Amino acid sequence: MKDTSRCIGVRGSARQRRGPLAALAAAVALAAAIPAAAQDDRMTPIETPAQPTAIELGTGPLPGATAKESWHSQYGSKFARNVTVATLTPFLPDPAKATGAAVVVAPGGGFRTLSMENEGWDVARALADRGVAAFVLKYRLNPTPADMPGFEKSMRELFSGNARPPRMDPDQAMKAIAPQIADSRAAFALVRRRAGEWHVDPDRVGMVGFSAGAMLTMATALAGEDAKPAFIGNIYGPLSAVTVPADAPPLFVALAADDPFFAHGGFGLIESWQAAKRPVEFHLYEQGGHGFGMYPKETTSTGWFDAFASWLAMHGYLKPAK
Protein backbone atom coordinates (compact mmCIF):
# COMPACT_ATOMS: atom_id res chain seq x y z
CA MET A 1 0.00 0.00 0.00
CA LYS A 2 1.25 3.48 -0.80
CA ASP A 3 2.22 5.96 1.86
CA THR A 4 -1.19 7.34 2.76
CA SER A 5 0.27 10.45 4.37
CA ARG A 6 1.64 11.43 0.96
CA CYS A 7 -1.68 10.70 -0.76
CA ILE A 8 -3.59 13.13 1.40
CA GLY A 9 -0.91 15.72 1.91
CA VAL A 10 0.06 14.96 5.53
CA ARG A 11 3.84 15.10 5.55
CA GLY A 12 6.09 13.55 8.15
CA SER A 13 6.89 16.85 9.82
CA ALA A 14 3.20 17.63 10.14
CA ARG A 15 2.59 14.21 11.63
CA GLN A 16 5.23 14.83 14.26
CA ARG A 17 3.95 18.32 14.90
CA ARG A 18 0.28 17.39 15.30
CA GLY A 19 0.74 13.95 16.85
CA PRO A 20 -2.25 11.61 16.78
CA LEU A 21 -4.45 14.03 14.86
CA ALA A 22 -2.19 14.00 11.80
CA ALA A 23 -2.13 10.22 11.78
CA LEU A 24 -5.89 10.25 12.16
CA ALA A 25 -6.18 12.51 9.10
CA ALA A 26 -4.48 9.85 7.01
CA ALA A 27 -6.67 7.12 8.46
CA VAL A 28 -9.95 8.96 7.92
CA ALA A 29 -9.12 9.71 4.29
CA LEU A 30 -8.14 6.10 3.67
CA ALA A 31 -11.31 4.82 5.32
CA ALA A 32 -13.22 5.64 2.15
CA ALA A 33 -11.45 2.75 0.43
CA ILE A 34 -12.21 0.06 2.97
CA PRO A 35 -15.51 -1.25 1.61
CA ALA A 36 -13.84 -2.06 -1.74
CA ALA A 37 -13.40 -5.72 -0.90
CA ALA A 38 -17.10 -5.93 -0.15
CA GLN A 39 -17.84 -5.51 -3.85
CA ASP A 40 -16.74 -9.12 -4.44
CA ASP A 41 -19.97 -10.39 -2.89
CA ARG A 42 -23.59 -9.63 -3.63
CA MET A 43 -25.43 -7.26 -1.32
CA THR A 44 -29.05 -8.28 -0.72
CA PRO A 45 -31.48 -5.84 0.94
CA ILE A 46 -33.12 -7.20 4.09
CA GLU A 47 -35.66 -5.96 6.59
CA THR A 48 -34.24 -3.98 9.48
CA PRO A 49 -33.67 -6.53 12.24
CA ALA A 50 -35.54 -6.16 15.51
CA GLN A 51 -33.24 -4.53 18.05
CA PRO A 52 -35.37 -4.45 21.19
CA THR A 53 -32.47 -3.84 23.57
CA ALA A 54 -30.83 -1.06 21.55
CA ILE A 55 -30.65 2.20 23.50
CA GLU A 56 -30.58 5.55 21.73
CA LEU A 57 -27.52 7.54 22.76
CA GLY A 58 -29.08 10.98 22.54
CA THR A 59 -26.52 12.46 20.16
CA GLY A 60 -29.35 13.45 17.83
CA PRO A 61 -30.06 12.72 14.17
CA LEU A 62 -27.21 13.06 11.72
CA PRO A 63 -27.32 16.64 10.36
CA GLY A 64 -28.45 16.84 6.75
CA ALA A 65 -29.28 13.16 6.39
CA THR A 66 -32.26 12.36 4.17
CA ALA A 67 -32.10 8.57 3.58
CA LYS A 68 -33.55 6.24 6.18
CA GLU A 69 -31.49 3.53 7.88
CA SER A 70 -31.41 0.35 5.80
CA TRP A 71 -29.84 -3.10 6.07
CA HIS A 72 -28.43 -5.71 3.73
CA SER A 73 -26.88 -9.15 3.94
CA GLN A 74 -23.46 -10.04 2.58
CA TYR A 75 -21.11 -12.93 3.25
CA GLY A 76 -23.99 -14.47 5.22
CA SER A 77 -23.83 -11.56 7.67
CA LYS A 78 -25.88 -8.42 8.38
CA PHE A 79 -24.81 -4.85 7.63
CA ALA A 80 -26.41 -1.47 8.35
CA ARG A 81 -26.05 1.77 6.41
CA ASN A 82 -27.45 5.28 6.49
CA VAL A 83 -27.47 5.10 10.28
CA THR A 84 -28.72 8.50 11.41
CA VAL A 85 -29.43 7.80 15.09
CA ALA A 86 -26.73 6.18 17.22
CA THR A 87 -27.58 3.32 19.57
CA LEU A 88 -25.84 1.06 22.06
CA THR A 89 -26.90 -2.57 22.51
CA PRO A 90 -25.89 -4.34 25.75
CA PHE A 91 -24.79 -7.99 25.82
CA LEU A 92 -24.52 -8.82 29.50
CA PRO A 93 -22.83 -11.94 30.89
CA ASP A 94 -24.39 -14.50 33.18
CA PRO A 95 -24.13 -12.92 36.66
CA ALA A 96 -22.29 -16.01 37.82
CA LYS A 97 -19.55 -15.30 35.25
CA ALA A 98 -19.49 -11.51 35.35
CA THR A 99 -16.10 -9.97 36.02
CA GLY A 100 -17.19 -6.34 36.15
CA ALA A 101 -15.13 -5.53 33.04
CA ALA A 102 -16.84 -4.12 29.96
CA VAL A 103 -16.05 -3.40 26.32
CA VAL A 104 -17.59 -0.96 23.86
CA VAL A 105 -17.52 -2.74 20.46
CA ALA A 106 -17.21 -0.57 17.32
CA PRO A 107 -17.86 -2.39 14.02
CA GLY A 108 -16.20 -1.23 10.82
CA GLY A 109 -17.33 -0.40 7.31
CA GLY A 110 -15.50 2.70 6.10
CA PHE A 111 -17.96 5.04 7.87
CA ARG A 112 -20.46 4.08 5.13
CA THR A 113 -21.70 0.74 6.42
CA LEU A 114 -21.47 -1.17 9.69
CA SER A 115 -20.67 -4.87 9.92
CA MET A 116 -23.14 -5.27 12.76
CA GLU A 117 -23.09 -9.06 12.99
CA ASN A 118 -19.53 -10.17 12.22
CA GLU A 119 -17.80 -7.26 13.96
CA GLY A 120 -20.51 -6.40 16.46
CA TRP A 121 -23.03 -8.84 17.86
CA ASP A 122 -20.87 -11.95 17.41
CA VAL A 123 -17.94 -10.25 19.15
CA ALA A 124 -20.19 -9.07 21.97
CA ARG A 125 -21.66 -12.53 22.54
CA ALA A 126 -18.17 -14.03 22.70
CA LEU A 127 -17.08 -11.42 25.24
CA ALA A 128 -20.18 -11.96 27.37
CA ASP A 129 -19.44 -15.68 27.36
CA ARG A 130 -16.08 -14.83 28.95
CA GLY A 131 -17.80 -12.80 31.66
CA VAL A 132 -17.20 -9.38 30.09
CA ALA A 133 -20.16 -7.06 29.50
CA ALA A 134 -20.17 -5.90 25.89
CA PHE A 135 -21.94 -2.97 24.26
CA VAL A 136 -22.25 -2.78 20.48
CA LEU A 137 -22.03 0.78 19.22
CA LYS A 138 -24.10 1.52 16.12
CA TYR A 139 -22.61 4.90 15.32
CA ARG A 140 -23.88 7.38 12.76
CA LEU A 141 -22.61 6.98 9.19
CA ASN A 142 -21.83 9.09 6.16
CA PRO A 143 -24.94 9.12 3.92
CA THR A 144 -25.17 6.86 0.87
CA PRO A 145 -27.90 6.53 -1.80
CA ALA A 146 -31.10 5.12 -0.34
CA ASP A 147 -31.63 2.44 -2.99
CA MET A 148 -29.32 -0.55 -3.31
CA PRO A 149 -28.54 -0.04 -7.05
CA GLY A 150 -27.64 3.57 -6.32
CA PHE A 151 -25.47 2.53 -3.40
CA GLU A 152 -23.67 -0.10 -5.47
CA LYS A 153 -23.12 2.40 -8.28
CA SER A 154 -21.68 4.95 -5.85
CA MET A 155 -19.27 2.33 -4.53
CA ARG A 156 -18.19 1.31 -8.03
CA GLU A 157 -17.52 4.93 -8.88
CA LEU A 158 -15.59 5.39 -5.66
CA PHE A 159 -13.31 2.49 -6.56
CA SER A 160 -13.09 3.14 -10.28
CA GLY A 161 -9.47 4.19 -9.90
CA ASN A 162 -10.23 7.79 -10.77
CA ALA A 163 -11.23 8.84 -7.27
CA ARG A 164 -8.54 9.82 -4.82
CA PRO A 165 -8.79 10.20 -1.06
CA PRO A 166 -9.44 13.82 -0.11
CA ARG A 167 -6.61 15.90 1.27
CA MET A 168 -7.22 16.48 4.96
CA ASP A 169 -5.37 18.33 7.65
CA PRO A 170 -5.76 17.03 11.22
CA ASP A 171 -8.53 19.47 12.11
CA GLN A 172 -10.50 18.42 9.04
CA ALA A 173 -10.05 14.76 10.00
CA MET A 174 -11.43 15.34 13.47
CA LYS A 175 -14.34 17.28 12.00
CA ALA A 176 -15.00 14.50 9.48
CA ILE A 177 -15.64 11.95 12.20
CA ALA A 178 -16.96 14.34 14.84
CA PRO A 179 -20.38 12.65 14.91
CA GLN A 180 -18.79 9.25 15.44
CA ILE A 181 -16.53 10.54 18.22
CA ALA A 182 -19.57 12.10 19.88
CA ASP A 183 -21.36 8.75 19.66
CA SER A 184 -18.39 6.95 21.20
CA ARG A 185 -18.16 9.43 24.05
CA ALA A 186 -21.90 9.09 24.67
CA ALA A 187 -21.54 5.31 24.76
CA PHE A 188 -18.92 5.51 27.50
CA ALA A 189 -21.01 8.01 29.43
CA LEU A 190 -24.05 5.72 29.25
CA VAL A 191 -22.16 2.61 30.36
CA ARG A 192 -20.63 4.43 33.31
CA ARG A 193 -23.92 6.08 34.24
CA ARG A 194 -25.68 2.73 34.37
CA ALA A 195 -22.70 0.77 35.70
CA GLY A 196 -24.51 -0.23 38.87
CA GLU A 197 -27.52 -1.57 36.97
CA TRP A 198 -25.31 -3.52 34.56
CA HIS A 199 -22.84 -4.68 37.26
CA VAL A 200 -19.95 -2.97 35.51
CA ASP A 201 -16.91 -1.37 37.11
CA PRO A 202 -16.78 2.14 35.55
CA ASP A 203 -12.98 2.08 35.78
CA ARG A 204 -12.73 -1.17 33.76
CA VAL A 205 -14.49 -0.16 30.54
CA GLY A 206 -12.44 -0.66 27.39
CA MET A 207 -13.07 -0.46 23.66
CA VAL A 208 -12.36 -2.67 20.65
CA GLY A 209 -12.85 -1.58 17.05
CA PHE A 210 -12.55 -3.07 13.59
CA SER A 211 -11.17 -1.19 10.58
CA ALA A 212 -13.01 2.16 10.63
CA GLY A 213 -14.19 1.17 14.12
CA ALA A 214 -10.52 0.78 15.04
CA MET A 215 -9.91 4.33 13.83
CA LEU A 216 -12.76 5.47 16.04
CA THR A 217 -11.31 3.51 18.95
CA MET A 218 -7.91 5.18 18.53
CA ALA A 219 -9.52 8.63 18.22
CA THR A 220 -11.53 7.97 21.38
CA ALA A 221 -8.39 6.99 23.27
CA LEU A 222 -6.11 9.73 21.91
CA ALA A 223 -8.32 12.77 21.41
CA GLY A 224 -8.04 13.80 25.06
CA GLU A 225 -11.77 13.66 25.68
CA ASP A 226 -13.54 12.26 28.71
CA ALA A 227 -14.22 8.71 27.46
CA LYS A 228 -10.74 7.36 28.40
CA PRO A 229 -11.01 3.61 27.73
CA ALA A 230 -9.24 1.40 30.27
CA PHE A 231 -7.84 -0.70 27.40
CA ILE A 232 -8.21 -0.70 23.63
CA GLY A 233 -8.17 -3.18 20.76
CA ASN A 234 -7.27 -2.19 17.20
CA ILE A 235 -8.36 -5.00 14.86
CA TYR A 236 -7.12 -4.49 11.30
CA GLY A 237 -7.05 -0.73 11.62
CA PRO A 238 -4.29 1.63 10.41
CA LEU A 239 -0.96 1.48 12.24
CA SER A 240 0.26 5.03 11.66
CA ALA A 241 2.67 6.48 14.21
CA VAL A 242 1.10 8.68 16.88
CA THR A 243 2.13 10.70 19.91
CA VAL A 244 1.22 8.49 22.86
CA PRO A 245 -0.02 10.12 26.08
CA ALA A 246 1.78 9.18 29.28
CA ASP A 247 -1.37 7.49 30.55
CA ALA A 248 -2.26 5.71 27.29
CA PRO A 249 -4.22 2.50 27.86
CA PRO A 250 -2.88 -0.98 27.13
CA LEU A 251 -3.23 -1.69 23.41
CA PHE A 252 -3.98 -4.96 21.58
CA VAL A 253 -3.48 -5.06 17.80
CA ALA A 254 -4.35 -7.78 15.27
CA LEU A 255 -3.67 -7.53 11.53
CA ALA A 256 -3.21 -9.95 8.62
CA ALA A 257 -0.01 -9.64 6.58
CA ASP A 258 -2.11 -9.86 3.41
CA ASP A 259 -4.49 -7.07 4.45
CA PRO A 260 -4.85 -4.97 1.27
CA PHE A 261 -5.25 -1.71 3.19
CA PHE A 262 -3.00 -1.62 6.23
CA ALA A 263 -0.40 -4.39 5.96
CA HIS A 264 2.26 -2.43 4.09
CA GLY A 265 2.32 0.93 5.82
CA GLY A 266 4.74 0.03 8.60
CA PHE A 267 4.09 -0.50 12.28
CA GLY A 268 4.47 3.02 13.61
CA LEU A 269 1.61 2.63 16.07
CA ILE A 270 3.29 -0.33 17.75
CA GLU A 271 6.62 1.48 17.86
CA SER A 272 4.96 4.59 19.30
CA TRP A 273 3.44 2.59 22.16
CA GLN A 274 6.78 0.88 22.80
CA ALA A 275 8.67 4.18 22.79
CA ALA A 276 6.22 5.56 25.35
CA LYS A 277 6.75 2.44 27.48
CA ARG A 278 3.05 1.66 27.41
CA PRO A 279 1.72 -1.93 27.22
CA VAL A 280 1.17 -3.21 23.68
CA GLU A 281 0.60 -6.62 22.12
CA PHE A 282 0.73 -7.13 18.34
CA HIS A 283 -0.41 -10.16 16.34
CA LEU A 284 0.55 -10.18 12.64
CA TYR A 285 -1.15 -13.15 11.00
CA GLU A 286 0.25 -14.55 7.77
CA GLN A 287 -3.17 -14.69 6.10
CA GLY A 288 -6.67 -13.41 6.75
CA GLY A 289 -7.15 -10.42 4.47
CA HIS A 290 -9.28 -7.54 5.68
CA GLY A 291 -12.50 -7.86 7.65
CA PHE A 292 -12.05 -11.40 8.98
CA GLY A 293 -13.73 -10.56 12.28
CA MET A 294 -15.55 -13.56 13.71
CA TYR A 295 -15.91 -15.36 10.39
CA PRO A 296 -14.63 -18.95 10.65
CA LYS A 297 -11.70 -19.18 8.22
CA GLU A 298 -8.91 -21.66 7.55
CA THR A 299 -6.32 -19.09 8.60
CA THR A 300 -4.68 -18.43 11.93
CA SER A 301 -6.30 -14.98 11.95
CA THR A 302 -9.41 -16.78 13.24
CA GLY A 303 -7.54 -17.10 16.53
CA TRP A 304 -7.41 -13.37 17.14
CA PHE A 305 -10.35 -13.45 19.56
CA ASP A 306 -8.84 -16.15 21.77
CA ALA A 307 -5.61 -14.15 21.79
CA PHE A 308 -7.53 -11.02 22.75
CA ALA A 309 -9.32 -12.89 25.55
CA SER A 310 -5.99 -14.23 26.83
CA TRP A 311 -4.61 -10.69 26.76
CA LEU A 312 -7.61 -9.46 28.76
CA ALA A 313 -6.99 -12.28 31.24
CA MET A 314 -3.32 -11.31 31.54
CA HIS A 315 -4.41 -7.80 32.47
CA GLY A 316 -6.89 -9.12 35.03
CA TYR A 317 -10.11 -8.34 33.17
CA LEU A 318 -11.46 -11.91 33.16
CA LYS A 319 -11.62 -11.97 36.96
CA PRO A 320 -13.56 -9.70 39.32
CA ALA A 321 -11.46 -6.83 40.62
CA LYS A 322 -10.13 -7.35 44.13
UniProtKB/TrEMBL annotation:
- The segment(s) forming the Dienelactone hydrolase domain are 121-294
Q: What does UniProt give as the signal peptide span?
A: 1-38
Transmembrane regions: none
Query: Recorded GO terms, molecular function?
Result: hydrolase activity
Going by the UniProt record, its keywords in alphabetical order are: Hydrolase, Signal
Q: What is this protein called?
A: Acetyl esterase/lipase
Identify the species of origin: Sphingopyxis indica
